[in-house]
Write a structure and sequence with these properties.
By secondary structure, this protein is mainly alpha-helical. The protein has 7 helices and no strands. Helix 4 (about 50-75) runs parallel beside helix 7 (about 130-165). The mean pLDDT is about 80.
Amino acid sequence: MIREVIEKKAAKAIAESRYGKTKAARFSAAILDEDRLEAPDSLEDTLQDSRSKRRVLMICIGVNVVSWLSIFLIPNVVSTIAIGLELLLAKGSALLLAPAFGFTMLASFSVLRSWFPPVPKSSDDGGVMSSYEQGVDSLLTWKLWVASSALGGINAILLAVTFVWSNGG
C-alpha cells in the first residue's frame, strides 16, 4: 500500500517535470504507475505523421535499392550467402527475400495509406451508421494490406528470378 502511493507520487513528479513529455519519462512513469500505461502506437497511427512516413519510406527504399544493387553488382557474394544460409537452415536462402518482401510491403502500404487516408473518427460514436463506417474503414485497411502484400511478393519474386537469371541457372 505504501509502496503504491510512493510509486504514484514518483510517477506524478516525473510527469510534471520539464522532461515529462519525453518518451523516456512517459515510459518511466508508466513503470511506476500502472494507471499511466498507454496503448502503443499502431503502424497506421505512426504513418499519419508526415515525418515518420517519410522516414519509413526512405528506409524501405534504401533496403530495396541495396537488395537490387547487390544482385547486380556482387552476385557471387549473394550466392555464397544463399548457399551458407541453405546449409544452416532448411529454407535459409528464402531469408534473403524477406527484406525485399517486407520493406516493399511496408513502403507500399504507407504510400497507399497516404492516397486513401483512414476515415476520421467522429465525435458521435453511437450513431446509427457508426458500425457500418467502422466496417468500411476496416475493409479498406484490409484491402490496402492485401495490395501491399501482393506488391511485396511481386518484388521478391522478381528479385529471385533476376538473381537466378544473372547467375545463369
